[in-house]
Structure formats: C-alpha cells, structure tokens
Amino acid sequence: MSKTVEERERVVVRFAGDSGDGMQLAGGRFTDATAVLGNDLATLPDFPAEIRAPAGTIPGVSAFQIHFASRDILTPGDAPNVLVAMNPAALKANLPSLPRGATIIVNEDAFTRRNLEKAGYAVSPLEDDTLREFTVHRVPMTTLTARAAEGLEGVGTRDAGRAKNLFALGLLSWLYGRPTDVTERWIERKFASKPAAKAANLAAFRAGWSFGETTELLDVQYRVAPAEDVEPGTYRQVNGTTATALGLLAGSVRSGLPLLLASYPITPASELLHELSRHEALGVRTVQAEDEIAAAGVALGAAFGGHLGVTSTSGPGMDLKAETIGLAVMLELPMVIVDVQRAGPSTGMPTKTEQSDLLMAMYGRHGESPLPIIAAQTPGDCFQAAFEAVRIAIERRTPVILLTDGFLSNSSEPWRIPEIAELPAIDPAFAQPPADPDARFLPYARDERGVRPWAPPGVPGLAHRIGGIEKQDGTGNISYDPANHATMTRLRAEKIARIADDLPPLEVDADEDAELLVLGWGSTYGAIRAAVRRVRARGLRVARAHLRHLNPLPGNVGEVLRRYPRVLVPEMNTGQLARLLRAEFLVDCRSYSKVAGQPLFAAELEEAIVEHLGAPLEGVAAR
Amino acid sequence: MSATAHVNGSGNGATPRLTKADFQSDQETRWCPGCGDYAILNAVQTFMPELGIPPEKIVFVTGIGCAGRFAYYMDTYGMHSIHGRAAAIATGLATTREDLSIWVVSGDGDALSIGGNHLIHALRRNVPIKILLLNNQIYGLTKGQASPTSERGKITKSTPFGSQDRPFNPVSLALGAEATFVARTLDRDRRHMLEVLRQAATHRGAALVEIYQNCPVFNDGAFFALTERETKAAMQIPLVHGEPIVFGPEERRRGVVRRPDGELEIVDLGDGVTEADVLVHDAHRDDPSLAFALSRLSERPTEPTPIGIFRQVDRPIHGAAAELNPDRRAADVDALRALMHAGDTWTVGAGA
C-alpha cells in the first residue's frame, strides 16, 4: 500500500504517559534520531517530582516534548501537533494544551474502566465527543507489543509489557521518517547484557514502525527536511547539564587547573554532579558533601589550594551557600557557583523551571558583597556561559554565580562542538616568590584591574593569612579602621565593576525605527527570538537584545535602553531584571512576567509584544 | 600545581633546620591575659619544627571564636574562615592538595555546635586533617554563653536559671563518628600536649585532639581538678598504648577494670586487686567500642578523667580511592575533545 508523503516545515510532538511508561526514554531516542537526521530541534521534558506517583493518576503523568524543523528553531514549541497518550491520565493532563485539529495517538489498551476512573473520567473520552476537534488514532499498543514479543526466546510478559514505549517510538519514527538505525544501535548497546529485554525492545520498536507502514489507520507520512540554514561544523545533541559540565572542563583545560566540584544532591542540579563524577580521568574530583554549606566550603578550600573550585546547587541550596560566597568575596578567591534555578520559594516546585534567583544572586548576602553573574541562554550555550564564569572567576579572583535553570539543564538541542583551542587561554597568574627573600608579600596589593595576587600554599616566601575579617588594604592584616573599611568596600566594588571594561557591548537585533526593545536574559532567549520573529512576520517593527552578563552589565546597556521609547523585559519571575534596570538607569522598563513553573511560550509573548507596541506611550517625557 | 609528594608527617631532609621563631607571625597575639590559648599556641609553635615540614607546606584553617585567631599567629599559610566551617573548607584543601599538612583549630562552640555536621563528616571520611578542638566549655568571643560542652546547671548570660541540656563529650562524639585518631590533652600540661600533638601530626588520616583549655574570664578553673598540682595525680587517668590503665598518687593507686557485664569501672588497687586485673590500653583496636567506654568513665572534668590517645587506627583516607589521576592534573585538550565528540555526532557543510 502506498502512502502519501507530506512536507512539514516544523512539528511539535509530545510523548505522554505514566511516569513508569518510559516516556522520557522514548522522547530522548526520538530526539537522537531527529538530531542525526539533521533537523534543528529543541526539547522539553516535563516529569513529576515524585519518583513514582500512583500509577495511572494525573500526578503521575510524565511527558517529553520535541520541536523539530527544517529551519532553525528557538523553543521546544508552545503546543504539540501530535500527542502520544499512553493512558487516560496522560490524555487528560495534556488535552488543555492541545490546539484544535491536533493529532492524538492513544494506547487504546490502557483505556480500561479502572484507568479511566483513576484519571477522573466517568465515560471514556474515546467514546463521547470530548475529542471531536482532534484527529484521534486508537492503537492497541499493549496488545501489539505483546504479540510482537511472542515466541522470542526468554522474553516474558514483563519484558513485553515494558516495551510498549518502544512501540510508540517505532510508530512515531515511521510517521516522521526518522532513521531506525540510530535507535536500533542504541537498543543493542543499552541492553547488551540483557538479551531478553533487547529482543523485546527491538521487536516492539520494529512492530511500531511496521504498524505505521502497513495499516490503513495512518495514511500520511510526514517529512521534515534537514535544516539548511545551519552553521557548518560537527554537531551533537546536548542538554544544558552536559554542556555546563563540558564548559567547566574546558575552563579547567584552558587554565591548566584541575577541577573540583563539590555538591549536595538537589533537583535539578544533581545531574551536574553525576555528570562530572564520571570524569575523574580528566583530573576532576567530585565531593558529595554533607550539606550545601560544606559543598561551598569544599569548593572554596580547593580554590585556596590553587584548583578550580566549583559548587553546584539549586535555589534552596543557594540560601545555604550565601555565607561561604560572602567569604569568597572577602577572600577574593576564584570560585564558580552554579545555580540551576527552580520554582520557589522554599521547596517550591523542584522539577519546574523559573528565573527567580537573579536578585538573590545580586543581593542575597549580608554586607556589601558584589560579584559577577552570568546567565546561560540555551542548553548548548551553557558551555560558553560556564567557560565564561570560569574565566572571570580565575582572572578576577572572585566568586562568580552562573545562573542556568531547570528548563536549560533538562532540554537538549543540536550543538556545534567548539574547538577547545579556539577558546581563550585563562592565565591563573599565580603569585611568584619575591626576588628579595626579605621582601614582604602583600596579599591584597592590587593590579590595574583591582585584582589581588593568588598565592596557593606551597611556595616559600608567600606564606600569608587571609580571613573573613575586614583587611587592611595591601597587607591583608585585620583592620577595624573606619577609613580602611570604606576603602576596601569601594575597592571590592570597583574590581567587579571594572570587569565591564572588557565585556563586549550588548548587541541589538533591531528593525529600523523600532519603537520597542524586548530585552531578556537567560533561558527565555529562544522564546523571545521566536516571539519577535512572529511579530515581525505581522509587519511590526521591534528591537531585541539578550543579556549574558547580569553583573556587571555591559557598558552600553544604559544607552541601548534610552534608544527606544518602550522597553519590555520578559522574565520567568515577577520582574527582577526590570527592577534592576529601572533602579540603575531610571528607564521605564515594563515587565512581562510569567511565574508558572513553565518556560515562556512564544505565542503568549507575541501577544504581549503586540499589545505593548499598540499601547499609548505613557511617561515618555521621563525617558 | 606541580609535584605533590606526600609529606604529611614525614620529615624532609632538604629543609634547613627550623626553629620556633620560623612559625611565629608578626601579628600581635590578642587573647585575654592568662588564656589557655597562649600555652597551646606556644606548644604548637614549639613542636612544628620537629615535623621537618617547611612552613610553606603547612596550612592552618580556623573558624570563628577565640580559637579562630590562631591562624593569624602562625607564620604558615592560613585561613580564618567562617563559624563552624573550617573542617569543610579544610576538606576541600586536603582533597586537592595531598602535599600539604593541614591543621584545623576550633573551639567547642565552633566545632560542636554550628560546625557539628562538618566535624563528624570530616572524621567519618577520614580526611587527612588535624583538628585541635580547644574546649573551654563556654562561648568566649561572644562573651559568656553556654556552649554544647557546658555542664548541666551552668549559669551563664544565656542560661540565667542554669543550662538544662546535657553536654557533648567531644571524645565520645568523635569515637561515635569512628574517627581514626582521637586524643585528649590539657593546656596546662605542656609535656603531655606536645606528645599528643606529635602523635596526631604523624597520623595518616583525620586526627581529633580535644584540648581542655582554661578561659580565665568566663569559665575560670573548669579543668583545675585535672591540671592543678594538688589534685591532678588523683584525677588524670593517663592512657598509654600497651600499658595497664592505672593512675592515682602513691597512697591511693587505682585502675580501670572491665566488669563481668562488660562495663568499665574504676577500682582501688590492693586488697586483692592487682595491676594484672587492670585493663591494658589498646589504642589500635579496630572496633571503637572499648575506647568509647573509656571516654564514658568521666562525665565531667571534675572527676577522674582519661587523657591521652583513645584511638589510633589505620583506615583508608578520604580520596585515597581516586587513583585514576593521582597527580590531579587538568585534562589535556585531546582527552576533552574526545569526550565532547563522544556519542552520535554529525557533520554539516562540505568543509567541516
């Protein structure tokens, strides 16, 4: 039977099922095949905080969304074109985000009375008119997977039952013409030591593919051509966690300093600890500390010893690390603090994303304790952001906070693998022993950038004592002198402010005569670009810029802000950057705020931008 | 960093002969007159030259409290850190710099209250650091509040009706954490203190040395029963590895025996009880239970109290399993490139 093939420029697919159904795995494999095919892509995993919520219930639903296209794409997509629902709860949880006309593929076998009850359906949505606005394909995936595994040597019903996610993956792989060899190779590798599971999964995957090819249920196959407007190079798929780890490692290689990561388990930052703990052969030491405070202390101790000390955490851990970060400010030692932001306050929603730690990074310590803040923009960009954090920390002898978030760390995208040798060298420039053995070493003497010497223990003639008590300018000895404290407070602030001298200016992507600047930071990068693209497609003029350095800001930010009559700052918080900019530059920045534990969506932001463009200009005279 | 030879506790023949003066910094010591900390600082500066470790390979990390000032007075590398966190920071330093001799100086509030978690975990991990716990049973720097080692009923500024809580016994706590070296000594017994410090310095792993330290301002005389001439012979129970645990003046010799139910008891010698009945101290027992029982012999330092080395055993040190890259060098470019290209990759563009 011949099937029609239709071209699609972009598609959003969401796999949803019970958290035990293997949806993250199915989504991840689909992503790999899509990446190898050469589509541009972005993904968004969405899983419950509970390790195992009651099976079949709505809190137990786990989903994975992938957006892929033949042109460059910027977000995981707002709403799916295709929903794969492995049970009634998955259908119910995801239905509200489905646009009219979307395709739904359900595992018909899972729509039992008991499962319907658990999801809160009195009548099966497959039987009434709940789904009348959608194209629904009912596929008995459990039965077909079991049948495919029948007669395979050593394969029990348990293996077969677990493999239905691979059936769904096979079906979707056929539907969108994904290469099968990538997935089959992965199954061979993953289950190399478990022949029964390997056989069951391979059979399920192939059965899903064949089902699509042979049945009349699906009469159209879609094609999404490889993306063409892509920079030449070697690519891989990467998520924010891996990119952060590689960026830190690149910082280690380019500085020649071994990397120590100290961390305490916390969602969603634990993955970075897992990732780096595998790389001991690359000189990495990881310490799973007794608590967040100790993790920061261990990293600072390593820094005092002349190594690259890094600690990673998420919001609640930042509260606890503040004390040690303050000491690092006082000691003026290099240290990188990775904050994988999540929804707060308190425990908040650990698996959900947010950008609400910016003001804490800026001001969340007692006393005057300024430090540099860097934010990553996309999963792959976590590499550059992490490298930049290492560079500034080492060169400027300061703790640096790197802000990523749950969305960045879990999402993945194709990433052009950079050449390490093309990254700037980082010179630790350790203090040299004095030529005159009687000369006194001054640990707080500063160079023209306001940077003090870094003198790890072990070098004769440089023995010195540092600590958290205010120090005398130059000698570093304890000092309670009022004028000295004022001087040191100023010197510490100037040291951070002067980093801006070497930062590239903020680049603006602007239409001529644009009246509105959309200024963002961090992981909203993709959504803002996509929204601006849509606004421009409507014939409207707009300017867009994105901040990587939140402190200090690039030198031209004030000038850029004043260039436009209106400034809109979209953030996944209640307006933290907007507040900073208003305070710093007296510019009437407007905030577009979303605090829902979800990334920004391009469509909602598009509407917000259009609204701001159309609104009468208020208070323009004040700009 | 360059070569990182293990010099912990081992002599280095190339070092010129050092003296006490080599370990005295130019900073004026500022403890209260008569403070026990002076004697401890003096003892540490005195025995440091014996180690044969050059000052630049020695680091003192301290927390907050009167003991925290210690770092400024040693002419070595030093960090005066945060209240309670010295053990954590020293763990980071020890993890990356096996070539250094690292000393933590802490107090009873610093180590046992705000820093209790870091202390027990540093001991559990057997991090190669030496922890001097200066115990004066009071908060000194904050001017006289009850500490976690203050006795019940202690009247202080924060406990005007008497402290209600049971104090920690630091030696029991350390043994509970299975510390590999646990000792107790006295600020007013210089000879004993020097000997314990020497043993701690050469221990391979974490060492906890509790030093009973007199605070003449807020808790004067807390340990006088153990340190003053009239009473000390009757009150000090010296622990010497391989020797029977006996003590007391000539007129009343006493010893520690194990009762049939396994508990330890102090008995008078004579009247049918001889030294042969007395428990022989074995600091090297792998199981810490007997050492723990010794630590429970006295509830307060106003009764016969064991001093000396309770436990000294050899166990793997923190990080010792990490042998893939013993020099802890940063990765080279090729190794990182291989990692970055691991897994499925694809190439875009003819030239790439």
* CATH-defined topology of the largest domain in chain A: Pyruvate-ferredoxin Oxidoreductase, domain 3
Count the DSSP helices of chain A: 20
Domain module count of chain A: 4
CATH level-four homologous superfamily name of the largest domain in chain B = Thiamin diphosphate (ThDP)-binding fold, Pyr/PP domains
Q: Kindly state the number of beta strands of chain B.
A: 12
CATH architecture of the largest domain in chain B, by name, is 3-Layer(aba) Sandwich
Strand order of the largest sheet of chain B: 2-1-3-4-6-5-11-7
Major pleated sheet of chain B: 8 strands, mixed
Class by SSE composition of chain B: alpha/beta
Distance between the termini of chain B: 37 Å
> Helix proportion of residues of chain A, in percent?
25-40%
Main β sheet profile of chain A: 7 strands, mixed
CATH class of the largest domain in chain A: Alpha Beta
Shape of chain B: globular
Oligomeric state, counting identical vs distinct chains: heterodimer
- Protein chain pair with the most extensive contact, residues per chain: A-B, 77 and 67 residues
The gyration radius over C-alpha positions of chain A equals 27 Å
The CATH class of the largest domain in chain B turns out to be Alpha Beta
The percent range for strand residues of chain A is 15-25%
